[in-house]
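Summary: Need help interpreting a holo structure output

Steps to reproduce:
1. Submit the protein chain below together with the SMILES for zinc ion.
2. Request a joint structure prediction with the ligand placed.
3. Inspect the structure token block that comes back.

Expected: a single structure record containing both the chain and the bound molecule.
Actual: see attached output.

Input attached:
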Amino acid sequence: AFFALLILLLIGFILYQSLKAPISVVIQAGHEGRTCGNTGAVCKNYKEVAWNIKVADMTAKQLEAWGIDVRRVPADTLPVRAKIAVAIHFDSAKHICRSGASVGYPDTNASRTFARHWKALYKPCFPFTWHTDNFTDNLKHYYAYHTIHAEKFLVLELGEITCQKQTAWLKPRLHKIALLIAYAIAKELGKQVPKPPVL
Ligand SMILES: [Zn+2]
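--- attached output ---
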């Protein structure tokens, strides 16, 4: 009984610690792991979720290489606390090529400032439409704002996967885009890291 109690206390302590201590960065690949409901856009050979995973993995890998603690999560996760959370998405549009890039975030000064910093990096390079911030309810009230508790949270729509012109531009740049996201996050954490190559 004594040892059972000890083990229970230990498990409780570990759980408590993992809930209490915020990790630096959570990177979410949008729609990852979903088999029904909102599984992401599919167009011709391109699946949004595959691109989300690719970019999320490369971003996390770069952050780790810079010594930053990262947790890579799928669409649905247990509650977690972080300093910074970034969700990776590509948009789709009924009227193709009418969409493009955008950002979503919770209505806080910290997230709004982070969004401004991200836009300063990506907007000058992205040669297509850019929507106003939080232009859909899915961005404004992103479901994961309630499970991933982050001081700064950004949902990135990196371009429109249903637009051939945009996928032609995006596809060879996915790695550089991931580096740019990692750079934006590292700067937000106050880390000195080299500026990535231009897109
Ligand atoms: Zn999406």
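--- end attachment ---

Reviewer comment: The chain is about 40% helix and 25% strand. The radius of gyration is 18 Å.
Status: needs-info
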